[in-house]
Input
Amino acid sequence: MPQDVLRIAVLAQRRPPVTKWGTGELRPYAVLPQEPQTAPNSLLAAENGVETWYLGGRDLTLYSGDTGHHRDNLVSGQPSVWVVMRGQDPKTAEVIAVTADPYEGEGYASDLELTVEAVPMPDSLRAHIAAFIDRHHVEMPFKKRKRLPADPNAMTARAPRVLQEGDKWVNAPRKR
Output
């Protein structure tokens, strides 16, 4: 199966708490099409209590079998990259995965220990994914399955709707 691996960088923002009882929140903010020379988990900027952190680079893998999913992402009106991250401390936060497949991103969202965020896709990455789709997409026609008509007079090996007394599970005697 043809595939293409792109190395991209992940940026996150840490916002101050809304109340005095809350904690700050670290969320993926953007992806860069190339990995910078900065060390992972580095503070890039701080302004008005909002900190921008570079969390590190991660491989985004495009598989030829998923080109339909990637195409759905590109035509959605707001192409995105899903960033999956663990941890709220920017010094130790870990990027688990990045994907351009919206259905894979949705699958990661079911894990409550992970933070999943759809961030805007850079134009250069969008062009690269579009070229990958053009090279490898194969349209699969939809085929509706034809059901066989049921014969009401046929003898089938179905279980009876009402079990006979001898066929029922035997329950252990109840203690009273």
Remarks:
- The helical segments are 67-74, 102-108, 123-136.
- The chain has a mean pLDDT of 89.
